[in-house]
Amino acid sequence: MTTTEECVPGAGAFPAGFVWGVATSAYQIEGAVDADGRGPSIWDVFSRVPGAVAAGESGDPACDHYRRWPEDVELLAGLGVGAYRLSVAWPRVFPDGGGRVERRGLDFYRRLIDGLRERDIMPFVTLYHWDLPQALEDRGGWRVRDTAERFADYAATVHEALDGVPYWTTLNEPYCSSITGYAEGRHAPGAREGHGALASAHHLLVGHGLACARLRENARQGEQVGVTLNMSPGVPASPSAEDAAAARRMDLMVNRQFTEPLLGGAYPADMAEVYGEISDFSFRRDGDLELISAPLDFLGVNYYYPIHAAAAPYVQPDPALRSAYDIGVRTVMPDGPGTSGLGWRIEPRGLWDTLTGLAARFSGLPPVFVTENGYGDYGDLDDTGRIAYLREHLAATGAAIAEGVEVRGYFCWSLLDNFEWARGYAARFGLVHVDYATQARTPKASYHWYRDVITGSSGGSA
């Protein structure tokens, strides 16, 4: 990666029209989990399982964004962003996953989108950010194809109701929804399965394809449809052949089982080698790959860190009992400085590798948005770590652009400190500090720094 003066934020790295944004998700900020007819999600139920979430916390009240959204829109306006990436909560629209539509939920998102557009802030709407209605999980969740079909119905309903949204994202991070939720058990619904987890990954992609088709049937002029993947390069922990093979298995699990069908129209050949003992892949149907690989208008990439992988024994020797997360790999932390307040490795080179690697592998790669990138800590008063992280990763983004990758925008995670899933409220990623006892919002130094980057950029906000 070259990091020249041209790649420093504010020094002309980014083209005219580059989209500067910030991101959140519904369950992490909205709160009001039983307001206006909202049904329970898998995260409401999972959060009540003893030990599932740090300190026994849940997404209620989160940041009370459901009631305080006008204040948060003002924070967005003060930040100077041209776009805001938000998600719609499926249980607010269909409390039972399908059937009866809860109009009060749709009205909330109409008000929010109207408020954004009044401030010339472009809404990027994500339809699924992990909050599956519990009623659908009770009927099999993403393990079963019916959930993909219900997702397409939900997507069409939201699309019809919400005008003025130029960018629609079907899924956020299907790896986390499937592998972290159905194989590792660290996220909702907390399952540790083999075949079921792989089925959930496939059905998420089928749901994406079905939703894309429904949105495009009734697309308004200028609307674009895409999907967001979290991507972490697999890096061998040593020069050994065993660790190189482990890193490739990690790359398959995290990255390639999603990128290859979406962008290449086929599952990786080593899927059978890695997972053939735990699944017969009978959930795949003729025509699925054509549906999944329908051309995208854009690809969202979420990046935080690479994964350093070393070979290890299977946790469960019996393949019949093995989860899809158990692939003979352990993650390691390499020597040297460079970790976030949460202990995550800071390697901006990994973002450059991800962006340039996608462009090299897929000749028809659609335009890319970096849809999440951010720094977590435990509430450090000194915000210099977050500023340094953002500066370095924006430089990596600029370097990828300089090498010809069509990156059209960057969304910082996150606008607000919020409910960070299994970590609860202790981990903080926000540009704005939230006092959860009072719900007071206080912009951090990184908020002002990012505002200066946006206003100083040659591209400005979109």
TrEMBL record:
Enzyme class: hydrolase
Keyword annotations of the record: Carbohydrate metabolism, Cellulose degradation, Glycosidase, Hydrolase, Polysaccharide degradation
Domain of life per record: Bacteria
Pfam family, one: Glyco_hydro_1
Catalysis performed (reactions): Hydrolysis of terminal, non-reducing beta-D-glucosyl residues with release of beta-D-glucose
Hydrolase listed as a keyword: yes
GO MF annotation terms: beta-glucosidase activity
E.C. code: 3.2.1.21
Record-stated family: Belongs to the glycosyl hydrolase 1 family.
Name recorded for this polypeptide: Beta-glucosidase
Source organism of this protein record: Streptosporangium amethystogenes subsp. fukuiense
